[in-house]
């Protein structure tokens, strides 16, 4: 989350527990419609430990984050998009890398921008969210 450059998570398969927490630490998340995501630690009688209890509520709202964590529910890409967990949902392709390809296309949109402006914009957004 503190990298000075934009980060994009591409979820083409399963991101449960720590996998989703890693994706939540990224600036943007892209997933295939068939991808599976969830913070399922409560099934193991533990809680998400790598920032999930902080980042998920900031991303989708407190009430919905509690519901997903309390139930250990797994959502697919379509539902993840509808609740604001991911920014983009794409249909999976034969190669199984549709989310990766969309993430790469987004990264190419970012490339022409000024690197210092990108770094400072990310810092301003991140710090502003904590005020």
What does this structure look like?
With 131 residues, the protein is α/β, with parallel strands linked by helices. The chain has one domain (8-129): Alpha-Beta Complex (2-enoyl-CoA Hydratase, Chain A, domain 1), CATH 3.90.226. The chain has six helices and six strands, in the order E-E-H-E-E-H-H-E-H-E-H-H. The protein has helices at 18-24, 52-60, 62-71, 77-82, 98-110, 115-129, and strands spanning 8-11, 14-16, 28-32, 36-38, 75-76, 88-90. Helix 2 packs across helix 3 (62-71). The longest helix has 15 residues, at 115-129. The radius of gyration is 15 Å and the shape is globular. The mean pLDDT is 93. One of its GO terms (biological process) is fatty acid beta-oxidation. Pfam families: ECH_1. This is AUHM protein.
Which SSEs are present, and which pair or pack?
Blueprint (H helix, E strand, L loop, with lengths): L7 E4 L2 E3 L1 H7 L3 E5 L3 E3 L13 H9 L1 H10 L3 E2 H6 L5 E3 L7 H13 L4 H15 L2
Parallel strand pairs: 1-3, 2-4, 3-6
Antiparallel strand pairs: 4-5
Helix pairs in contact: 1-2, 2-3
């Amino acid at each position: 989350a503190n990298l000075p450059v934009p980060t994009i998570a591409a979820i083409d398969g399963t991101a449960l527990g720590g996998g989703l927490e890693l994706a939540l630490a990224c600036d943007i998340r892209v997933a295939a419609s068939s991808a599976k995501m969830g913070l399922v630690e409560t099934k193991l009688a533990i809680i998400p430990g790598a920032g999930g209890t902080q980042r998920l509520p900031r991303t989708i709202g407190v009430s919905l984050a509690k519901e997903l964590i309390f139930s250990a529910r797994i959502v697919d890409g379509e539902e993840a998009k509808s609740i604001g967990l991911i920014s983009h949902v794409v249909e999976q392709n034969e190669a199984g890398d549709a989310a990766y390809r969309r993430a790469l296309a987004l990264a190419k949109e970012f490339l022409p921008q000024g690197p210092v402006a990108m770094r400072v914009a990310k810092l301003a957004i991140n710090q502003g969210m904590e005020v």
